[in-house]
Automatic annotation (TrEMBL):
InterPro entries noted in UniProt: Efflux_drug-R_Bcr/CmlA, MFS, MFS_dom, MFS_trans_sf, Sugar_transporter_CS
Organism: Paenibacillus illinoisensis
Name of the protein: Bcr/CflA family efflux transporter
Membrane topology: Multi-pass membrane protein
Segments passing through the bilayer: 48-67, 79-97, 161-180, 216-241, 247-270, 282-302, 308-332, 344-365, 371-391
Residue ranges of domain Major facilitator superfamily (MFS) profile in the record: 12-399
SUPFAM superfamilies in alphabetical order: MFS general substrate transporter
Family: Belongs to the major facilitator superfamily. Bcr/CmlA family.
Keywords of this entry: Cell membrane, Membrane, Transmembrane, Transmembrane helix, Transport
C-alpha cells in the first residue's frame, strides 16, 4: 500500500467526497429552475428534461473514459483538465443561446464532472486496501451522500435571489474551487511505475479482463442492481407521496431527506463494523435487509396502508443500499491495484445504466398506485441476491501474493 501517513485522513475524505458530490450537484441543483428555463427558451418541459438526460449520459460515458485515463496518466492531470473543462462547460450552460446548445453543454458538463466521481474512488484504492479501504470509503460516502440532499436546496437558495443562470455560474465557482484544491492540495497517488500504457486497445482489453472476473462482476452487479432500486425509489416517491398520500412539497422534502439520512447511516455502519465483521458478511446482511424491507413495502402498497407504514420499510431499504454499496466497493476493488481507474469506472457507470432501465418501471400502472414501486424494489432485491450467490459465493478464494506485492509498493 502507498504510504499515507502524511495525509490527513478526514481532510482527504472531505476533499474526495466533494469530488463525489460534483455529480449530484450537477444533476440536481438546477431542477427547481426547470419552469424558468422552459420560459426563457420558450420551449416545452420535455426538452428541458432532456437536458437532464444528456447530463446523465455524460456522467455515465465520462467514467468509462476518465477511469482508464487516470490509470495511464496519473490521477492529478486528468482531474485538473476535467475540472477546467467543467468550469468552461458550466459557463457555457449559463449563457447558452437556445435549448439545443444547453442540452449539448449539459452532456459535456456531465462528462467532465464524471472525473470527480471515478478518480476520487481510484485515489481511495491507491491509498488503502482491505478494512482500511472500507473505513475510508465510508468516510468518503459520508460526504458524497450529502450531495443529493443539499443540491436541490442549494439550487432553490440561489434561485431566491437570481435566475437559473446563477445556478450554472455557482457550479462553475464550485469547479474553480475543486481545480484549485487539485492543483495545490491533492498529491499524485498513481506513480509512473504503476501506470498502464495509454493504448485504446489495451484499455478495451482491460475492461474485458475485468468483465471476465466473476467475483468483480458479481460485486459490481450486486451493487449496481441495488442502486437501481434507489433510482426507482427516487422516480416513484414524488408521485406516491404527493399524489396518493397528498403530502405537501415541504413534507415530501422532509421524507426524502430522512431516507437520505438512512443512506448515510448504512454506509457509516459498515465503516464502524468493518474491523469486527467481514465485508462479505456486511454485504450479505445488506442484501437480506433489502429483501425484507422490499417485501414489507410491497405488502403495504397492496393493502393501501397508511403513509407511515410505507415510509418505515422504505427507510430500511435505502439504508440497505448504504450498507451494500459501502461493502461491495472495497471487495470489488481489492484485487484491482493496477486497474483502479477502470474498475472504479465500471462500478460507477453500471448503476446509471441499470437505474435508467429500472426507474421507468415504477410508472407503468400510472400515478395512482404504489404497487409497481413495491414490485420493482422486491425484484431488484431478489435479483441482487441471486447474482451474489451465483457469481461470488460459488467462486473459491484465490491466493493473492502478487496482489499483496502490488499493494505494498
Amino acid at each position: 500500500m502507498i504510504k499515507s501517513n502524511k495525509w490527513n485522513v478526514a481532510g482527504l475524505a472531505l476533499l474526495l467526497g466533494l469530488f463525489s458530490t460534483l455529480g449530484p450537484f450537477t444533476i440536481d441543483m438546477y431542477l427547481p429552475a426547470f419552469p424558468e428555463i422552459a420560459a426563457t427558451f420558450n420551449t416545452n418541459a420535455s426538452l428541458v428534461q432532456f437536458s437532464l438526460t444528456a447530463c446523465l449520459l455524460g456522467l455515465g460515458a465520462g467514467q468509462l473514459v476518465m477511469g482508464p485515463l487516470s490509470d495511464a496518466y496519473g490521477r492529478r492531470t486528468p482531474l485538473l483538465i476535467s475540472m477546467a473543462a467543467y468550469i468552461i462547460c458550466s459557463l457555457a450552460c449559463a449563457y447558452a443561446p437556445n435549448i439545443g446548445l444547453l442540452i449539448l453543454f449539459r452532456f459535456t458538463q456531465g462528462f467532465s464532472a464524471s472525473a470527480g466521481i471515478v478518480i476520487s474512488r481510484a485515489i481511495a484504492r491507491d491509498l488503502y486496501s482491505g478494512h482500511e479501504l472500507t473505513k475510508f470509503f465510508s468516510l468518503l460516502l459520508l460526504v458524497g451522500n450529502l450531495g443529493p440532499l443539499a443540491a436541490p436546496i442549494a439550487g432553490s437558495g440561489v434561485l431566491s435571489f437570481t435566475t437559473w443562470i446563477g445556478v450554472f455560474i455557482s457550479l462553475s465557482v464550485l469547479g474553480v474551487f475543486l481545480w484549485a484544491m487539485t492543483k495545490w492540495r491533492l498529491k499524485e497517488t498513481n506513480p509512473p511505475e504503476r501506470r498502464v500504457a495509454p493504448n485504446f486497445k489495451l484499455q478495451l482489453r482491460n475492461y474485458g479482463q475485468l468483465l471476465r472476473d466473476r467475483k468483480f462482476v458479481g460485486y459490481m452487479l450486486a451493487q449496481g442492481i441495488m442502486t437501481a432500486g434507489v433510482f426507482a425509489y427516487v422516480a416513484g416517491t414524488p408521485f406516491i407521496y404527493q399524489n396518493i398520500y397528498g403530502v405537501t412539497p415541504t413534507v415530501f422534502a422532509i421524507l426524502f431527506a430522512s431516507n437520505g439520512i438512512s443512506l448515510i447511516i448504512g454506509s457509516q455502519l459498515v465503516g464502524r463494523l468493518a474491523q469486527r465483521i467481514s465485508e462479505q458478511t456486511l454485504l450479505l446482511s445488506g442484501l437480506w435487509l433489502a429483501l425484507v424491507a422490499s417485501i414489507a413495502a410491497l405488502m403495504v402498497t397492496l393493502a393501501h396502508g397508511p403513509l407511515f407504514a410505507l415510509v418505515i420499510p422504505l427507510f430500511f431499504f435505502v439504508c440497505s443500499i448504504g450498507i451494500t454499496s459501502t461493502a461491495a466497493f472495497p471487495l470489488a476493488m481489492e484485487s484491482q491495484a493496477k486497474s483502479a481507474g477502470s474498475a472504479a469506472a465500471l462500478l460507477g457507470v453500471v448503476p446509471f445504466l441499470l437505474g435508467a432501465l429500472v426507474a421507468p418501471l415504477v410508472g407503468v400502472a400510472g400515478e395512482d398506485t404504489a404497487v409497481p414501486l413495491g414490485l420493482t424494489l422486491l425484484g431488484t432485491s431478489i435479483v441482487a441476491i441471486i447474482t451474489y450467490f451465483v457469481l461470488v459465493r460459488k467462486v473459491p478464494d484465490q491466493p493473492s501474493q502478487q496482489i499483496q506485492s502490488d499493494l505494498n509498493m
